[in-house]
Amino acid sequence: MAIRERLSGNEAVAYAIKQVNPDVMPAFPITPSTEIPQYVANYIANGEIDTEFIHVESEHSAMSATIGASAAGARAITATSSCGMALMWEELYVAASNRLPIVLALVNRALSGPININADHSDSMGARDTGWIQIYAESNQEVYDNFIQAFPIAEDRRVHLPVMVCQDGFITSHGVENILLVEDDKVKGFVGEYQPEHYLLHPEEKMALGPYAVSNYYMETKRAQRQAMIQAREVILETAARFEEMTGRKYGFFEEYCMEDAEYAVVIIGSAAGTCKAAIDEIRNTTGAKVGLIKIRVFRPFPEEEIAKALSGVKAVAIMDRSEMFSATSGPLGAEVRAALYQAHSSVEAVNYFYGLGGRDITVSDFKTVYGNLETIAQTHVVTGMYEYIGLRSEQSKEV
Amino acid sequence: MANEKIYDRINEQSPWQDITEGNKIFEAATSKDFCTGEWRTATPVWDKDKCKQCLLCTPVCPDSSIPVTAGKREAFDYDHCKGCGICAKVCPFGAIGMREGK
Question: Is pLDDT at A105 greater than 90 in this prediction?
Answer without folding.
Answer: yes
